Amino acid sequence: MAQAYDIPEKLIAGKEDFYVLNKLTRLGIGKGGFSKVTLAEYARCCTPENIHAVCEDYRAAVSVDMDMDTADFEAGRRIGCPAAVYWGELSHTEKYFKPREACGRSTVQTSSASARCPAATTRPSSSRTTSTTSLTRSSSSRATHH
Predict the structure, then answer these.
(1) Which H or E run includes 110?
(2) How confident is the model at residue 131 (pLDDT cuts 50, 70, 90)?
Protein backbone atom coordinates (compact mmCIF):
# COMPACT_ATOMS: atom_id res chain seq x y z
CA MET A 1 0.00 0.00 0.00
CA ALA A 2 2.96 2.33 0.54
CA GLN A 3 4.41 1.98 -2.96
CA ALA A 4 4.65 5.05 -5.15
CA TYR A 5 1.45 6.60 -6.50
CA ASP A 6 -0.52 4.95 -8.23
CA ILE A 7 0.80 1.39 -8.16
CA PRO A 8 -1.42 -0.04 -5.37
CA GLU A 9 -4.40 2.03 -6.50
CA LYS A 10 -4.25 0.46 -9.97
CA LEU A 11 -3.70 -3.04 -8.60
CA ILE A 12 -6.83 -2.78 -6.43
CA ALA A 13 -9.04 -0.88 -8.94
CA GLY A 14 -11.93 -3.05 -10.10
CA LYS A 15 -11.02 -5.72 -7.52
CA GLU A 16 -12.29 -3.96 -4.39
CA ASP A 17 -14.39 -6.95 -3.24
CA PHE A 18 -11.36 -9.25 -3.62
CA TYR A 19 -9.21 -6.75 -1.70
CA VAL A 20 -11.72 -6.40 1.16
CA LEU A 21 -12.29 -10.15 1.47
CA ASN A 22 -8.58 -10.94 1.50
CA LYS A 23 -7.63 -8.09 3.82
CA LEU A 24 -10.30 -8.74 6.44
CA THR A 25 -10.95 -12.47 6.38
CA ARG A 26 -7.53 -14.12 6.18
CA LEU A 27 -6.12 -15.53 9.37
CA GLY A 28 -3.99 -13.14 11.36
CA ILE A 29 -4.03 -10.99 14.42
CA GLY A 30 -7.36 -9.19 14.71
CA LYS A 31 -8.70 -10.54 11.42
CA GLY A 32 -11.82 -12.54 10.73
CA GLY A 33 -15.13 -12.59 12.53
CA PHE A 34 -16.84 -10.16 10.18
CA SER A 35 -20.40 -10.89 9.08
CA LYS A 36 -21.35 -10.87 5.39
CA VAL A 37 -23.29 -7.65 6.01
CA THR A 38 -20.23 -5.98 7.52
CA LEU A 39 -17.95 -7.15 4.70
CA ALA A 40 -20.45 -5.91 2.12
CA GLU A 41 -20.47 -2.49 3.80
CA TYR A 42 -16.66 -2.37 3.77
CA ALA A 43 -16.72 -3.27 0.06
CA ARG A 44 -19.37 -0.60 -0.66
CA CYS A 45 -17.21 2.06 0.97
CA CYS A 46 -14.08 0.87 -0.84
CA THR A 47 -14.11 3.56 -3.54
CA PRO A 48 -11.13 4.75 -5.59
CA GLU A 49 -10.98 7.86 -3.38
CA ASN A 50 -10.97 5.73 -0.22
CA ILE A 51 -8.25 3.43 -1.56
CA HIS A 52 -6.13 6.44 -2.55
CA ALA A 53 -6.51 7.97 0.93
CA VAL A 54 -5.51 4.68 2.60
CA CYS A 55 -2.46 4.42 0.34
CA GLU A 56 -1.46 8.02 1.13
CA ASP A 57 -1.70 7.24 4.85
CA TYR A 58 0.58 4.20 4.39
CA ARG A 59 2.99 6.32 2.33
CA ALA A 60 3.17 8.94 5.06
CA ALA A 61 3.71 6.26 7.71
CA VAL A 62 6.85 4.99 5.96
CA SER A 63 8.21 8.41 5.11
CA VAL A 64 7.49 11.59 7.11
CA ASP A 65 5.25 10.52 10.02
CA MET A 66 7.90 9.12 12.36
CA ASP A 67 10.26 12.08 11.95
CA MET A 68 7.43 14.57 12.51
CA ASP A 69 6.08 12.66 15.52
CA THR A 70 9.57 12.35 17.02
CA ALA A 71 10.21 16.09 16.60
CA ASP A 72 6.87 16.90 18.27
CA PHE A 73 7.55 14.49 21.13
CA GLU A 74 11.08 15.80 21.72
CA ALA A 75 9.80 19.40 21.67
CA GLY A 76 7.18 18.50 24.30
CA ARG A 77 4.26 19.17 21.96
CA ARG A 78 1.12 17.18 22.77
CA ILE A 79 -2.40 17.03 21.34
CA GLY A 80 -4.29 19.71 23.28
CA CYS A 81 -7.89 18.71 22.71
CA PRO A 82 -9.53 15.73 24.43
CA ALA A 83 -8.95 12.57 22.42
CA ALA A 84 -10.75 9.22 22.39
CA VAL A 85 -8.53 6.43 21.08
CA TYR A 86 -9.80 2.90 20.43
CA TRP A 87 -8.25 -0.25 19.00
CA GLY A 88 -9.24 -3.88 18.71
CA GLU A 89 -8.58 -6.03 21.76
CA LEU A 90 -7.30 -8.79 19.46
CA SER A 91 -5.42 -6.47 17.09
CA HIS A 92 -1.71 -6.14 16.37
CA THR A 93 -1.88 -2.76 18.14
CA GLU A 94 -2.85 -4.43 21.42
CA LYS A 95 -0.38 -7.29 20.97
CA TYR A 96 2.77 -5.48 19.85
CA PHE A 97 2.47 -1.89 21.08
CA LYS A 98 1.57 -0.10 24.30
CA PRO A 99 -1.31 2.09 23.10
CA ARG A 100 -2.45 3.24 26.55
CA GLU A 101 1.07 4.38 27.39
CA ALA A 102 1.56 6.08 24.03
CA CYS A 103 -1.77 7.92 24.28
CA GLY A 104 -0.84 9.28 27.70
CA ARG A 105 2.47 10.64 26.41
CA SER A 106 0.94 12.21 23.30
CA THR A 107 -2.20 13.89 24.58
CA VAL A 108 -3.25 16.25 27.35
CA GLN A 109 -6.52 14.43 28.04
CA THR A 110 -7.11 10.92 26.70
CA SER A 111 -9.81 8.35 26.99
CA SER A 112 -8.46 5.10 25.61
CA ALA A 113 -9.66 1.52 25.56
CA SER A 114 -9.39 -1.69 23.66
CA ALA A 115 -12.65 -3.10 22.36
CA ARG A 116 -13.83 -6.60 21.61
CA CYS A 117 -15.81 -6.34 18.40
CA PRO A 118 -18.65 -8.88 18.10
CA ALA A 119 -18.84 -10.41 14.64
CA ALA A 120 -22.37 -9.73 13.45
CA THR A 121 -23.38 -6.49 15.10
CA THR A 122 -22.85 -4.02 12.27
CA ARG A 123 -26.06 -3.02 10.52
CA PRO A 124 -26.07 -0.71 7.53
CA SER A 125 -28.19 2.41 7.87
CA SER A 126 -31.47 2.52 5.98
CA SER A 127 -30.04 5.11 3.56
CA ARG A 128 -27.42 2.64 2.32
CA THR A 129 -27.91 -0.23 -0.06
CA THR A 130 -25.97 -3.33 0.89
CA SER A 131 -26.28 -6.86 -0.41
CA THR A 132 -26.24 -9.47 2.34
CA THR A 133 -26.14 -12.40 -0.06
CA SER A 134 -23.17 -11.54 -2.21
CA LEU A 135 -20.14 -9.32 -2.05
CA THR A 136 -19.62 -9.39 -5.78
CA ARG A 137 -20.97 -6.44 -7.69
CA SER A 138 -20.15 -4.97 -11.02
CA SER A 139 -17.45 -2.34 -10.87
CA SER A 140 -19.86 0.05 -12.58
CA SER A 141 -21.70 0.38 -9.25
CA ARG A 142 -18.64 2.09 -7.76
CA ALA A 143 -17.51 5.62 -8.40
CA THR A 144 -14.71 5.86 -10.91
CA HIS A 145 -11.65 8.05 -10.49
CA HIS A 146 -9.25 8.91 -13.29
Answers:
(1) strand 110-115
(2) very low
